[in-house]
Design a protein that fits this description.
By secondary structure, the protein is an all-alpha fold. The protein has eight helices and no strands. It is rod-shaped and about 100 Å long. The termini are far apart.
Length: 281
C-alpha cells in the first residue's frame, strides 16, 4: 500500500518537519550568540560584582577614612603579634609543666627539684616551687641560728618548720605573680575586641556623611554617584570587624588557658604543703 505512494509525496510530507528543525536550530544559535555577546559587553564594560579594586578604593577614600583604616591596621597587626607570641608561650609552658611535675613527683628531695628548675623555666610552677622552697630554707636558718628549747645549741637532727602558714602565704603570693605574668598583654586583646568595631563605625559614619554631601552637591541620586561613597564608608566597618573578631576569639581562649594554669598551680601548692607538713612538722 505504501509502496504505491509516489516519492514526491514523501518529499512534501517531510519538508515541513525539516523546515521546523532548521528554524529551531537557527533560533537556538541566535539565542546562544546573544548570550555570548551580552557576556562580552559586560566583561568589557561594567565589571562583575565583587571584582572591584579594593586597594584603589581605599586609596581614593578621604584622609579621615584613611586615618581610621591605618589605626585599625595597627591594632590588627599588634593583636596578631600578641596572639602568636602567647600561643607559642603557652605551648612551651604546658610542655615544661608536664616535665616539672614528673620530676617533682619522682624526686625524694626538694634540692633535686631545685636543680632541675633552670631546664624547665617556662612553666609557672617553677616560680611557685622556688618561693615555697626559699621560705622553708629561711625558716630552717632561723631555727638553726636560734635553736630550740630542747636543743639550745641549734644543732637539730631534723629540720622543723616554724610556720606552715608562712609557706602557704609564700606559695599563694608566687602563684598570683605567675598568673599576672601569664595575663600580660592580654588586656590589649580585650581592648582591640571592644574598641575597633566602634572605630570602624566612626569611619563608616564619616564616610556616609561625605557620600550624602556628594549627592547633595551633584543633585542626583544615581547609583553611580551613591555607590562609591557608600563602599568607601563600609570598608571601615569591615576593617574594624576584621581586627576585633580574632582578638575576641583568642582572648577568650587565652583566658581559659590561664585558668587552667592557675588551677594547676593551686593543686601544686596543696601538694607542696602536704609534703612539707608530712616531713618538716
Amino acid at each position: 500500500m505504501f509502496d504505491s505512494i509516489p516519492v514526491a509525496w514523501y518529499a512534501r510530507l517531510s519538508a515541513p518537519s525539516q523546515r521546523r528543525a532548521t528554524d529551531a536550530s537557527e533560533a537556538s544559535l541566535h539565542t546562544l550568540g546573544s548570550h555570548i555577546l551580552a557576556l562580552q559587553v559586560q566583561s568589557e564594560g561594567t565589571p562583575f560584582a565583587g571584582s572591584g579594586d579594593v586597594i584603589g578604593l581605599i586609596a581614593g577614600t578621604t584622609p579621615i577614612n584613611q586615618a581610621v583604616l591605618l589605626i585599625l591596621v595597627l591594632f590588627s597587626v599588634a593583636s596578631w603579634a600578641i596572639i602568636l607570641h602567647k600561643t607559642w608561650t603557652f605551648r612551651v609552658s604546658a610542655r615544661d609543666t608536664a616535665r616539672f611535675l614528673d620530676v617533682f613527683r619522682r624526686s625524694s628531695k626538694f634540692s633535686e627539684v631545685q636543680a632541675v628548675c633552670p631546664t624547665v623555666s617556662a612553666t609557672p610552677l617553677v616560680g611557685v616551687f622556688q618561693a615555697g622552697y626559699a621560705e622553708m630554707n629561711a625558716q630552717f636558718r632561723v631555727m638553726n641560728t636560734g635553736g630550740t628549747a630542747a636543743n639550745p645549741g641549734g644543732a637539730s637532727t631534723r629540720p622543723t618548720l616554724k610556720s606552715l602558714d608562712g609557706v602557704d602565704r609564700a606559695l599563694i603570693r608566687a602563684a598570683t605573680n605567675e598568673v599576672t605574668k601569664l595575663e600580660r598583654r592580654m588586656t590589649f586583646l580585650a581592648t582591640t575586641a571592644s574598641v575597633t568595631p566602634f572605630i570602624g563605625l566612626f569611619g563608616t559614619v564619616v564616610g556616609i556623611m561625605i557620600a550624602f554631601q556628594r549627592i547633595g552637591a551633584s543633585g542626583s541620586t544615581n547609583l553611580a554617584i551613591v555607590a562609591p561613597g557608600i563602599s568607601e564608608a563600609l570598608i571601615a566597618t569591615a576593617a574594624g570587624l576584621f581586627a576585633a573578631i580574632p582578638a575576641l576569639v583568642f582572648y577568650n581562649h587565652f583566658t581559659h588557658r590561664v585558668k587552667e594554669f592557675s588551677a594547676t598551680m593551686d593543686d601544686f601548692a596543696l601538694e607542696f604543703l602536704n609534703i612539707a607538713e608530712r616531713n618538716f612538722t
